[in-house]
Structure formats: C-alpha cells, structure tokens
Predict the 3D structure of the following.
Amino acid sequence: MPNTILDGLSLVDTTGRLILAATLASLLAAVGAHLFLRMRYADLEGDLTETGSEDRQFSNAALRRIVQDAERAARRSSEPNTQAIIEDGFRAELGSLLAAERFVRAATGLVLILGLLGTFYGLTMSIGRLVHLLAADGGGAADVSQAVTRGLTDALSGMAVAFSNSLFGVGSAVALTLLGVVNNVTDRRTALMVQIETYLDRQLPKPGAGSQGASDSVGDFAASVTRLDGAVARFETALQRFSASTKDLREIQLVVALKPDDRDRS
C-alpha cells in the first residue's frame, strides 16, 4: 500500500507537488501553533497561580496591564466591567496569541480547500489531456499505439495529482480535528480569562469601598448627633423639673416665713 501511494505521487507534476507542499506546510504550522498556544497559556496560568497568593507584580506584561486597568476602573466606577478589561488586555498585549488561535481555527478548512484545489487542478489537467488525445490525428498503427499510451499516461498523472491532493487534504483535516479535540485552544483561553476575572474579584480592592466607608462615617455621625439631641432634650427636661422644684421650694419657704407674723397680729 505505501509503495502504491509513492508510485502515484511519482506521477504528480510540479504544480501538484507545490499544492501538496502547501498543504503539508499548513498542517505543520497548525500543529506548531497548537503547541505554541498551549505553552503560552500554561505560562500565563502559572504566573497567575504563583503571583496570585503573593504581594508582587506579575512577570507577564498582559497580566500587569489588566490589573492596572482594573484598579483604575474600580476607582472610577462602583461596578467595573472586568470582562471587557481582560479582553482589551489580551488584544493589546497578546495579539500574536489571538492571531495564532484564529489560524488554528481556520487550518482545518484551509487544508481541505488546498486538497480540493489540487483535486480540481488534477482533474482539469487529466480531462484536457484526454481531449487532446482524442482530438489528435491518427497515423500509423504504431504511432497511434504510442500516442494512446502516452496520452493515457499523461491523463493518469493528472488523476494522480487530483487524488493525491484529496487524500492528503482530508487526512490533514482529520489530524487537525483530532488535535483540536484533545487541545482546544479556545477553551484554554476562556478558562484562563475566567481565572483572571476570579483573581480580580478576589484580590483587588472592592469597588466602592471608599464610598462605603464614607457612608458608614456619615451614618455614625448622624447617630452621634441623634444621641446628642436626646441628651440635650433630657437635660432640658431635668432643668425644667429642677426649676419647678425650686419654685415650689421658694413658695414653701415664703409660707413658712409668713406664719409667725400672722400669730403676732392676732
């Protein structure tokens, strides 16, 4: 079976080989992009895990930018949009990762399209050679036999281009699909963004903490004023009672002082 495939590939012309080379290059580039993204996202997760529990800055510039933007947004608004901040940080600092991720998603379709391109090219070449063979003028028997043999060989070379590219394109698409199932880079990025958002919610100052403290201070001051008003009211009540008691006492003293004079007059 491998020898048969190699024999078929030996019939492929230069253009067909270029298409096969482009398909192979796309396959290798997609596999390399998978490995590159896996390592970079693993590094980001490691940096987030190691620094998340310590009081030091992240070594990755993207994480530092995201934290700084989130802190500024928390000071400006009581409810900062951390998801948008994380996405902006990824686009600004990790544009190469996002481009590699887009290529990985498009690689499966790309190898299929290259395979179809080679297929149609080979079929077109094969049909053209068959038409040329049938339209050729007949000569001697030996000439006709040689022309037919040569024409069929050329036509078969076109079929070899077509089916070789189809086989290689479909095989590459299957390999990339299986690789995407095992290592889905989009899911890894989404999980990383969720971890960053969780870190921001847990580690950064709570939004509106300053305003909440001011509200508590105002509430305590109002409670103190209320207690002071109550104490003043009780003090006024006590003064009124004391004034009333003093007035009653003066009246009693006046009555007692007048009683001897009344006895003298009698």
About this structure: The chain has two domains: 2-207, 208-266. Residues 2-207 form one domain.
